Amino acid sequence: MLASPETKGLVPFTRESLELIKQHKAKKHSEEHEEEDLKPSPDLEVGKELPFTYGKLPRGMVSEPLEDVDPYYYVKRNTFMILNKNRIIFRFNAISILCTLSPFNPIRGTTIKVLVHPFFRLLILTSVLIDCILMSMFNPPQWVLAIENTLLGVYTFEILVKVTARGIWAGSFSFLGDLWNWLDFSITLFEIITRYSPLSSIVLLKNVRTFRILKIIPLNQGLTSVVRTLTQCLKRLMGAIFLALFFLGTFSLLGMGLFMGNLKHKCLRWPQENGNETFHNRTMHLYYISERENFYYLDGERYALLCGNRTDAGQCPEGYVCVKDGTNPDHGFTNFDNFGWALLALFRLMTQDYPEALYHQILYASGKVYMVFFVAVSFCFAFYMASLFLGIIAMVYEEERQRATEKPKKTGSPFQQTAKEHEAGNEAAETKTTQIEMKQRSPTSLEASLHVMEEATLKHEEELKTSRKKCPLCCYKFAKTLLVWNCCPCWIKLKEFVHKIITNPFSDLFLLTCILLNICFLALEHFPMSQETMCLLSIGNLVFIGIFTAEMILKIVAMHPYEYFQIKWNMFDSVIVFLGLAEIFLANLEGMALFRLFRMMRIFKLGKYWPAFETLVRTLANSLITLKDLILLLFIFVYFSAVFGMKLFGESYRACACRIDKDCQLPRWHMSDFFHSYLNMFRILCGEWIETLWDCMEVAGQPWCISFYMVVICIGNLLMFYLFVALVSSFSSSKETTIEENNEVKNIQFAMARIKKGLREILCREKNAPKKTPDHANDTYATENASGHTLSDLSNTQVFLKENEKSSATEKTPVTETESQSLIPSPSISETVPIASGESDIENLDKKEIRSMSGNGDSREKIKQSSSSECSTVDIAISEEEDMVYERERPKHLKNGHGRRSSSGQVSRGSRKGKIWQNIRKTCCKIVENTWFKCFIGLVTLLSTGTLAFEDIYIDQRKTIKILLEYADMIFTYIFILEMLLKWMAYGFKAYFTNGWYKLDFIIVIVFCLSLIGKTREELKPLTSIKFLRALRVLSQFERMKVVVRALIKTTLPSLGVFLFCLLIWLLFSIMGVHLFAGTFYECIDPTSGEIFHVFEVMNKSQCESIVFNESMPWENAKLNFDNVGNGFLALLQVATFNGWLTIMNSAIDAVGVNMQPIFEYNLYMYIYFINFIIFGLFLPLSMLIGNIIANFNKQKIKQGGSNIFITVKQKKQYRALKRLMYEDSPRPVPRPGNKFQGLIFDLVTSHIFNVIVVVLICFQAMTVMMQNDEQSPQMKSALYWMNSFFVTLYTLECILKLIAFHCYYFTIVWNVYDFMVVIFSITGLLLPMTIGYYFVPPSLVPLILLSRIIHILRLGKGPKVFHDLMLPLMLSLPALLNIGLLIFLVMFTYAIFGMYNFAYVRKEAGINDVSNFETFGNSMLCLFQVMIFAGWDGMLDAIFSTQWSDCDPDKINPGTQVRGDCGNPSVGIFYFVSYIFISWLIIVNMYIAVIMEFLSISSKKKARTLSEDDFRKFFQVWKRFDPDRTQYIDSSKLSDFAAALDPPLFMAKPNRGQLVAMDLPMAVGDRIHCLDILLAFTKRVMGKDERVEKLLSEIESGYMSANPFKITYEPITSTLKRKQEAVSATIIQRAYKSYRLRQNDKNASDVHVIEDDRVAHPSKQGIQLYKTKEKSAIQSQI
């Protein structure tokens, strides 16, 4: 067992210790079972500091061999320990194995002292850092070579020291026992070879040196632990990685079958030699080689226009024909012509890098119908696989965090706790003594005494803090002498006066107002600005600087400088003031304009008055400090990748630049120097890698570039995902700590309370001045009572409210009595109308909320006022419990049948009109409550919504449809108006308009009416454009969407504060962008070519206006710029979504100045601005926001009892049924046929070997599809045809065998039906070309049909079980995903209709083309799907920005319609795309959360020691196999097999007989054990022993008894443990008797045969002894 640290202590390692280790190793095999319990202590790991519980480290033990204090290493690993002067633990092997010196050898001792010395590690770390800097240099000078040689010597010396100190191979702590030493040795060896051998010309060997950067990792203990954690995470991700590869390969094969060769289809000019014959859109192979100029190119495009043969594919213009010729687009790298390129294309879609380009290429070449392929790929990879990876990483991170939090609890030292308690006790005692002394010296006033006591306590705490600091005490005395100003009485009076001003609540309100105005002034800057505006902003800046300076001075006067600078916010304010003053005084100096950027820091002054801001910043800071090692590891990896890429590809970029640029100039993104290479790696981590990969493959070849990029993408994304999950987890799990509000926040609250109170008094005085009633007297009393309180009293809200309630009690009492009297039904006065108990669409309040709202007996009346109207017959908010209480409180004389629950609408009994009105309302309520009526309204809603899709640009050409739609609109309007009137009659106005869904219906009815009015007159026609809102009525008609909307509101609204914080950060970056780039994005453009003039031709705006014969050229601004804060926000949004961000960054990098022509990469280091925004403006705020949404999600889930918040009550039942179905091991068993032949076939097709053979055949068939390519030979085509025929034959044979074996049961299994359809379609695909010709049947038809069987690999029992486990969260999340998907479709539908009404006629340019446009509903949905995955919306917005005559024609005639012009509307376009991106992002984030939380809940249930209904069901399924006669008993001999046949967590692996015997199970006659006894014992084994388990066991027993009333009662005669003890006892007795008989036979032997008997007896005795020993050990093991 582990020895106590206190008892062992530190013992020198001597030769006796070494001899003990050797002796222990010699007899290690006999004590092996005792050492299995030893585990290493986490606090005594290598590299950690020795805990102080081992006492002070003597100077003589520093760097000397010590006996290892951890028994695990000392006993099992045979090590000794070394401690350096910093108490860092080092371990070394004690026993020599290979080239290892003795621990007492002086040479080894010297090297060990060198190795463990802190300066040695510092030397190595410094050398590595210097080497990293040198490796990042491009064309280093000659003196660098001398430094590199010196560093090589240092590394060689380090290896020699380690080899001597640790030995070459002597266990886990030897030189070769550490993998990092292998890396060091390899790098050093290769560096020596490349430097001093002829192999120095090999570039790859030179690049091995860059791995030296990774040497930083083993030099830092934190980095090593992070790498270890990531390695474990990678192991856990292996199943998901294999599943991703499976999907990747499957979709690649599917893409090959669908799109092979299609991207070579281009529009080629066809020579019109025969005027009678023309060819249009006929794919053909020409007999001549086409030239590049014969292809059709769109303006500004690099590659030829793609086309296809389908009607929905791209069409060629007149004079061109669609042919398959030329190369593929994007340097020929984008295609599906073989499996390799298809795999690369699918990997690109999986990472969502530039998907819109491939999206358009495929739709142009193959048709719009293949959008389904991209939807499936996006859902599978971008959504589900990403959710799976994030879920697994989140699970690993939570486990690691729990392990880290449990370590201090387990290893907490009593000595440390005692020391802390002693120290805390001393502090408390001293504080108490000080307080008593101050009380004795205090004046008579209580307030003064408290004030003095608080000051004394604060001073004592400050002294304690000061005493713990490292600075000498004299420094603090000196500081207090100079910085505490108590000069004279006049100064003290001035100080008190200033203190009153500063602490006044209105002073803080004034400062807060100034901060908000200063932010507004900062946001008002724009380009161009008039002189008056510039002057106003300049004066405003001076005023604010003056105000903030005055604030600082007054606070210093009031608080002393010493106390002022003790507060962090005051220090921040002083920094802002000093920077502002420096800006003013240095404004005229050149290069000091950057001081203006520090103005943005004033925005953070809001944090002083915003407690949530401080909470978020504190949580963020703590998270970053906790994750500092992970962040450092990510930076090291990016640095290493940049250096390695520069070394590997830099020369290729410089030598082959002409391949990627026509001017032989290096592109913007390359790896020829370190800075560009680092930017390239950063871009890869942002998800943009495919374009730079194309350039890399052009200049350096495909193998190295693809390998390098894949490694960077995979490892980089793993680090990014882990960091993202860690940040999200820290924000989602951060506890809502109630932070004490500072004085500023309290002052703001007091000031606002005073203002409200003053306004209320003024308004009440003016309102009640003419007359004064008793009610007014009560109000006056309440007001006086409230105004009589001081600020300190008002801070206690509860006391204030109680007094107000007391003061208003006289006013409330008569009103309550009147209301209660009006609710009592009297035969002579009124009669209630009990029409309906409630309307299903009205959301009733939760019972808990009602209880919390109702604090007294008047709760019923209060709720009734807010939930019903005077004419309503339904009391919607009353809970059943309150209704029962109300019934009990009724008078007894009203229980004669007339006393019925009253609604807020009451009708007089004596009035005949009242009865008619009552009957009318009854009828209306019955109608609206009728199920058929609801179904009819839902159908009409769907029809009215669906008709909107027909109103596209071709509606004017379809006269009949247009007339039908007009009549349909009128009918729908009348129906919805009638429904609204019926609900008004049934529920009343108040009940109707207090329901949110009915309000939405009312708004939609108004929309219907306005759209009809808009059709009557031409000037009112714009009203028809709001018809798209009609689609929102679907929300109120379907419960599934309502559930999702409610959940989104509940998870999003509490995150509003975090969203405002993120918006504040964006405002900071937007203002900073305005300061840096306002007016600098202009450029002079050649109107003929559309290219920018070179800077040698045009240098500024004035030269641009007079460049050609004094004629002005267009001096145009970029459409996205930073000329004002609004444009800055839009530009930052594009950067955040990585759409159009490269264009924005290029403009910023090339910017020279205002009215200056841009120069290529003039301002290169402006990339830092965008990098900072992506990190601090996107990554961190996104983590905050998502973490807060997850926290709200978990809260709502807990409120609903742990169920999914995105599903309805009915779907919860479906969820449980689906869960039961997914956990089902096998479908309903098929009976075995009685015929021998059929039975033999049945056994064959149901065997596991048969299933394995089928899966292997499926894999082989997929491999044949991989062998295909676009330009394969006829022999290859013939071979593939016969291979497909062979697989079809095998699958047909499988189908026939299963039909023979299963008979009619064959078609009861869904998978068999699917296989049967595959066989039928495959045979049809083989025979069809023989009948109708090969031209009409694509050659990939049969392979794709056969490939569809690959889905069998995901089946439980067919493929790997890990695939089934990983697919389980998706299947269980399907109900929630379906609901969320319906909401997404509705949002897309609504925005598609809106886009058709506003952007249908926009000019086709940039992102709007023949495929992506808003002309029809289908094209609009294509665009919105593209925007939903954040792809290409920048191009669409760019086209909508076309408003000038040069870009569009506002008077253009559009054929077939009366609409003129093809210009866009920028403001509407910005609102359209920004709102859609935000809403769709919010919904998709909740989709991710739903799947990830489902995955985490499944994994947590597996780890928790709990049992579910499915576990018990599986238990009884296995029981049926062992008890087919249903006797409820099994033989005890079968118990071991039964336990091994169960599923986890009840599963017990063999050998398990010892565990089963220890359970002490009761046994009946015949050594039989009952089912219930086994179940209870197994349950107790899994869940342990506590009150909860005992309660569960009693429930299981009672449930079993109720389910099995015929249970056989029995009296157990023994138990498994007793029976085992009896068997062991009998065995011992028998063997003792046998040995006794053998001894008696030896004594009675004849003396004549003594010698012979001795010869025989001697070995027999030895045999007996050996037999006894074996017997004893066997008995012990059995027990």
Description:
There is one protein chain. With 1679 residues, this protein is mostly helical. Helices cover 62% and strands 2% of the residues. The chain contains 64 helices and 11 strands. The strands form 5 sheets. The protein has a 3-stranded antiparallel sheet with strand order 1-2-3. A two-stranded antiparallel sheet has the order 4-5. It has a two-stranded antiparallel sheet with strand order 6-7. α15 runs antiparallel to α16, α23 packs across α24 and α41 crosses α46. The longest helix is centred in the N-terminal third of the chain and has 41 residues. The two termini are 22 Å apart. The N terminus and C terminus are likely disordered.
Protein traits:
disordered N terminus; 3-stranded antiparallel sheet; 64 helices
Radius of gyration from CA coordinates: 42 Å
* Shape label: globular
Separation of the first and last Cα atoms: 22 Å
Relative strand content:
under 5%
Mean pLDDT: 79
Helix content: 55-70%
Biggest β-sheet, characterized? 3 strands, antiparallel
Regions with little confidence, pLDDT below 50 for 5+ residues: 1-7, 30-36, 272-291, 412-471, 771-910, 1650-1679
Please list the strands of the largest sheet in the order they lie side by side.
1-2-3
Structural class determined from secondary elements: mainly alpha
